[in-house]
């Protein structure tokens, strides 16, 4: 159970890449959201796109916890073909 909780808390490429893309997307389009109602549709498209990117990357990357101690966690990140 402890290893599973640590696995969920570690940021892997399938989580960090969509969050970074979503952050840039929303920072650029924030003025559009405040000006017109179309901005909210664009906001929803950005969130849906980030979720889709997350699901695509989730299939490509796998993370294993090799060792876990009070000093830290040793992980292995593998990219699937």
Can you characterise this structure?
The protein is α+β, with helices and mostly antiparallel strands. The chain has one domain. The protein contains 3 helices and 2 strands. It has helices at residues 2-9, 13-35, 38-60; strands spanning 61-69, 72-79. It has a two-stranded antiparallel ribbon with strand order 1-2. Helix 2 packs antiparallel against helix 3 (38-60). The longest helix is centred in the first third of the chain and has 23 residues, at 13-35. The protein is elongated and about 50 Å long.
State the total count of DSSP E strands: 2
- Cα shape: elongated
Mean pLDDT, to the nearest integer, reads 78
Q: What proportion of the residues is helical, as a percent range?
A: 55-70%
- Rg, nearest Å: 17 Å
Query: Numbering strands along the chain, what is their spatial order in the largest sheet?
Result: 1-2
CA distance, first residue to last residue: 29 Å
The number of helical elements comes to 3
Residue fraction in strands: 15-25%
The assigned structural class equals: alpha+beta
Total of domains: 1
Low-confidence stretches: none
The description of the largest β-sheet is: 2 strands, antiparallel
Order of helix and strand elements from N to C terminus? HHHEE
Helices and strands, with pairings:
Elements (H helix, E strand, L loop, with lengths): L1 H8 L3 H23 L2 H23 E9 L2 E8 L2
Antiparallel strand pairs: 1-2
């Amino acid at each position: 159970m402890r290893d599973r909780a640590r696995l969920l808390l570690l940021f892997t490429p399938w989580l960090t890449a969509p969050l970074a893309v979503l952050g840039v997307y929303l920072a650029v389009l924030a003025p559009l959201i405040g000006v017109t109602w179309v901005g909210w549709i664009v906001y929803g498209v950005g969130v849906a796109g980030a979720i889709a990117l997350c699901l695509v990357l989730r299939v490509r990357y796998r993370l294993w916890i090799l060792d876990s101690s009070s000093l830290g966690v040793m992980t292995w990140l593998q990219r699937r073909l």
